[in-house]
Design goal:
Helix content is 28%, strand content 27%. By secondary structure, it is of the alpha+beta class. The chain has a single domain (56-304), classed as PPM-type phosphatase domain (Phosphatase 2c, domain 1, 4-Layer Sandwich). Helix 2 (120-137) crosses helix 4. The radius of gyration is 19 Å and the shape is globular. Mean pLDDT is 89; it is low at 1-27. This is PPM-type phosphatase domain-containing protein. InterPro entries: PPM-type-like_dom_sf, PPM-type_phosphatase-like_dom. Residues 78-285 form the PPM-type phosphatase domain.
Length: 305
Amino acid sequence: MRWAPELPPGWVPAAGPVQVVDEGGTEVGVVGGGPPTYAAEPTAWPEADPDGLDALVPDTVLDGAAYGALTLRTAAVRGDSARYRGQPRRDALLTARFGTGDDGLLLVAMASGARGADDAHRAAQDAVRWIAGAVGRSRARLADDLRAARRGSLKSGLHRLTDRCYGRLRARGEDLGLDEGAYTASVRCLLLPVDPECRVRLFFGVGEGGLFRIREGAWQDLDADPEETSAPFRFRATVAQPGDALLMCSAGLAEPLRGEPELAAHLAGRWGRGRAPGLAAYLADAQTRVKGYADDRTVVTVWDA
């Protein structure tokens, strides 16, 4: 049974949304055994502070891009439980391009705030902003190391950037008067060169989530090198092949992908055909629901033509 927070005092549910079913009576966009606990559409918005409106996060974020052989789709969706209870999305998503032309770097950063923490969504937003800023300021060096496939330099440099980000999170938590370690987040980043001659795809991060690849219709779990499975900092450099679909996601999607074979098979069929869906179709795929999994989902998929 997945964790669910207590309902806030005075909470009153809105009328339940209409569920869409197919001709056989099965809810559309659902795999696995039995219907999910929660309805498929958002119910309640989080309570807003008029002096803290910059902390509000939308229910859903959707983005995409195409650079040469690369096509990207990314989405962040508030979990069914948070939608029902009017709680903010704990996941944060940031997409950025640093530099121009073939010297550019593409970054997708995602973070998940600590479960049960009141400031979880703020910590996640700070984490993706701070780590993206550090990557952007180091763009020239990172681009050179990527082209030259300097794995050791990339790993050590990104490790330092990640450590600095977590140092800032700790300091921010102290400023807010929170317990040590309360203001934190799991962070996952995907760094891609625009240069079509460089087919290195770089992943790094700390905490829960997943890194997968669909190659020739089969899933491969690339979450970390075998010797790094227990290390806090995770790093993986892979070389793309035509037809690959590389997927990085938060724990909200990684857990059902690993735990529900029907979801993995469904998304392999949708995303493993060598071409990217449109934004709306991608969002619908990313929201495919599984009973027992109600957390936020954040995901990026990269197709190599």
